[in-house]
Task: inverse folding
């Protein structure tokens, strides 16, 4: 089955530690995205990549980093510079062009 | 900067009733998407509206797009409890490939 996987589902970290969230897709989509969702709010774009080895900052990139070494993988690192990292993180992918985005199941990150 | 506003943000309705959720956006776009999110879950694609006047229907939900008014509506007919969820509209940012801007979401509760 084609789809997007994110791991882990839940992640707990101590303040000051970097943490990497995994996102893998087997849909052969060129574009991939990372969003953050806070309770009761909409999605905000962190980073996106439209092609391998290239990515751009979204609206709230500070304190985050990404890489896109393979078409199917787009990991997100939440660094210690991110002031409020506790949130629900969603990865998405899409074909090039203007089709909709498909979302992974999400990772809920809690930093204490 | 593209802004997307949904109203209402909270909607409590009785089973069997009809209601409409509105999605207004601030700049030109001819692609609009509706998603559903259940509590603690990811986003599920409902509708993709590709042109002015587009209307899509699936079960008790019908979505429409008026690009001249920069308005999309999601109409619920004879609501049932299973429709309880948060509904998001998202608008394609014309100048940035396949990036989307999301509304804040409308939290719908259907009471027996």
Result:
């Amino acid at each position: 089955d084609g789809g997007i996987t994110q791991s882990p589902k839940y992640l707990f970290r101590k303040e000051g530690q970097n943490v990497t969230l995994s996102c893998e897709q087997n849909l052969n989509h060129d574009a991939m995205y990372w969003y953050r969702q806070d309770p009761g709010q909409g999605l905000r774009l962190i980073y996106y990549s439209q092609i391998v080895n290239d990515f751009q900052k979204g609206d709230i990139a500070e304190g985050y980093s990404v890489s896109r070494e393979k078409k199917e993988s787009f990991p997100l690192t939440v660094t210690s510079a991110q002031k409020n990292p506790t949130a629900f993180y969603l990865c998405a992918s899409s074909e090039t062009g203007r089709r909709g985005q498909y979302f992974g199941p999400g990772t809920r990150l809690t930093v204490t | 900067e593209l802004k997307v506003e949904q109203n209402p943000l909270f909607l409590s309705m009785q089973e069997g009733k009809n209601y409409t959720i509105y999605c207004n956006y601030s700049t030109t776009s001819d692609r609009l998407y509706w998603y559903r999110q259940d509590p603690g879950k990811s986003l599920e694609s409902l509708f993709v509206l590709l042109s002015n006047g587009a209307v899509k229907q699936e079960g008790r939900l019908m979505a429409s797009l008026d690009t001249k008014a920069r308005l999309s509506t999601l109409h619920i007919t004879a609501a049932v409890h299973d429709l309880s969820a948060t509904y998001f509209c998202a608008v394609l940012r014309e100048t940035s490939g396949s990036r989307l801007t999301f509304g804040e979401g409308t939290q719908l509760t259907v009471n027996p």
Remarks:
- Chain B has a mean pLDDT of 92.
- Chain B touches chain A at residues 31, 33, 35, 40-45, 48, 88, 90, 92, 97-100, 102-105, 107 (CB under 8 Å).
